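User: Continuing from earlier, I have the next pair ready.

Assistant: Great, send them over.

User: Here they are, in order.

Assistant: Folding the first of the pair now:
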Amino acid sequence: MKPVIIESSEQMKTLAAQLEDAKLIAVDTEFFRETSYYPQLALVQIATDSIVACIDPLVFDAKDALKQILLDETITKIFHSCSQDLEVLYYYLGQAPATIYDTQIANALLTDFHQIGYASLVENELGVSLDKSQTRTNWLQRPLTEKQIQYAGDDVFFLYQLQLKLDKRLRETGRKSWFEEESETLNNCGNFQLATDKLWRRVKGASRLPRNKLAVVQAIAIWREQLAQKNDKTRRRILGDDIINNLAYRQPENISTLDQTITSKYNFTEEEKKQLLLVIKQATQSPEASWPDNRFDTLDAEQKLLLKKLQKIVSDCAEELTIASTVLCPKKDLETLILHFQNQQDPPLPQINAVQGWRYRCIGQNLLETIKQQP
């Protein structure tokens, strides 16, 4: 189906009228974030069984009209691997859409493909090979070519068809309730503001540092995050990870020694340099109790044997259900369960998926019984 390009408020009103009675729409976005902190929305695609529209928010203000459609909780919005789409829409609309149907999640509950890409899923389910030539295109450039518009429109046209097919299979297999449980998390995502308490994890190479040095990394990482948001630049355009690690080791005490580490590549103002020095100084004086904890528990020999036994239980159940074992219970969660019961016979259950909802019924109860039977 040939997409309609929406480039004016009048065209948008016509589209809104056509969607007035729709209860199910496919949605996709094109955006750019190679050089900016915040994703820049470049295109919004919407499709039903009879409409394929590409809305261009760069040539007219589409915000209010898109709010009426995408924030309407009576309309189910179909996405594939929705996290980035929801994030870019959150920053554009001020609120993320709810009532989400993610075809990647639906497929993960029906097959052993855990995180299948959209093009592969379309080919597997609909027998259609999508054009991938525009995958790396710059969606901020105007005018859009006919090839770009067709590529963008195809994404939502086939997405709508996918939902119909996957949803039918979920109902036939009795797994629609599983899908609804999985979707609750998507529909409850309040915002996409990044939590700052573990920003040190985003600094490559930092996890190997001693905890006192890690406290400096964490403090600089928070400072960098705030500056990146303020200037709308990527983190590494503000300050590279290697520089942060060097600053944690050397801990400069004045602007002269700071300049030797950060080099002229980063054009900080004198005030920003003073703030960075203060942040480093405060981190070096912070109490040990506040330092980030990069320590991790390891399993002993007996616990490793138990882990293998639990992995076999998960693997057998996953094979029987024809889904990926990581969807049921990843190795990390099994280790969490084992360590959780290490020193306590009947502690409160940890907050992991395997002991909640449909997974508890399928596998969690068996895992808990096996752990408790260990001497």
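And the other member of the pair:
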Amino acid sequence: MSTVYFDHNSTSALKKEVLETMFPFMTSQHGNPTSRHVFGRNARDAVEIARVQIANAIGAQASQVIFTSSGTEANNFAVNGIASQLAHGQILTSAIEHPCVTRPALAMQARGWRAHGIHVNADCKLDMHHLHNMLAAPTNLVSVMLANNETGVLQDVAQIAELTREHKAYMHTDAVQALGKIPVSFEDLGVHAMTISSHKIGGPLGVGALVLDKRVDIYPLLHGGGQEKGLRSGTENVVAIVGFGAACELAIKNLSHFAKHTESLRKRLEAGLQEMKAMIFGINAKRLPNTSFFAFENIEGETLVTALDKAGFAVASGSACSSDSTEPSHVLLAMGIDPDVARGAVRVSFGVENTMSQVEAFLKSLAQEVNRLKQMTAIAA
């Protein structure tokens, strides 16, 4: 029995068209992009073409795209690099940020900055009143994700950026989960920096980018040969960058179909979940079309995820990057969800390859597993 993959927010399968674009650079088109010979020039051309493809996908200029090894590196680069060019002040991050934003902010405290979290409400939306109050103190940087990786809830980043600019602070957004699922425009968001990643949109692992307003000074994380305009040294991962560019182009081409198709799957899933009396997190807010985060009373999320895996469905109990933690989701705790309920959280995130028949089969298996686990809990009690 093949397993159905419902965990696209963790990572997505490499698209066939993307692999075909990458393949020559795995074999015959080798060359260091800094080399002067024909192989190096071809590699440099490929990197710059990908840079344009990515910029076109996100409403930015190619010169604003700085390649990194991942979204995690790009987020660390933004937090550390922007703050390091400024006098000591505070760094504000939303309470639902990915650890690769919050942990760099906390680490900056050892160097004299202050890190604070911005509250969210029960719908996973940023508390704008709290942000306004926090900005009364001298602030270097505000970082708020465009789309939450667990609940899928979207933030009003353009509005947040406007308020942040009014207080003379810099604004960064982690748009890793949003890219390829909703329209994303660096220019329209009005941010100073934005993080994106390849492997969430059918591109290869091992490449991301920080999109940066050219007026922003930023201190490099990596020093060396001066690649990426001296901002990110290290030989460029040409094959992955080529794949990233192709994946961006393909994702934007298919954006409307992706949104329509995955939202129809989510609607059917959540109708079934409501019939089963599941709690669906962030359901009253605008969300990514492909994401549903839910829990059943008195059922552990990890236990349910394991049972569903054995039944042939790959889902998640939260962020894959925090899967080694036994603590309940920090996102749900920030939303005011009871820790016992939060421990039961399960995330389904669809891809365009998923079908309605898979959702129907999932709902059937889910109902069986939930009933079985409830019976076991009753016997144990």
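Worth noting for the second one:
The mean pLDDT is 95. The first helix runs from residue 16 to 26.
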